[in-house]
Amino acid sequence: MTGGVTTTPAGLRARHATLVGPGIVLGLWMLWNALRDGAVDPGRTMIGWMLAGWGIFNVVEGLVDHEILGIHHVKEGGNEVAWDIAFLAFGIGLFAIGRLLTRRRGSLRPD
Question: Exposure winner among 48, 82, 87, 88, fewest CB in 10 A?
């Protein structure tokens, strides 16, 4: 236990299931409603928002778990910080690509 946070694999799985599970359910419910109401097309826009959400999750999880709390790192051992920074950069890249996909063709404004 580090600072009151469980660092065992079983503890991390339970923590992620507790914190991330409701977010996944809420996100799927919101997506289902948006598709049903015709607010989101099931193609490029939806994939773009999925990538953007994945990127945001990676950045938040990377900052909180890897850097602030130090619960775990992307790759333990040598060059931990380099791996963590690469993970954050990957998350930022996913977000950027996702947002580009959500824009209308020929427009700089989101749909």
Answer: 82
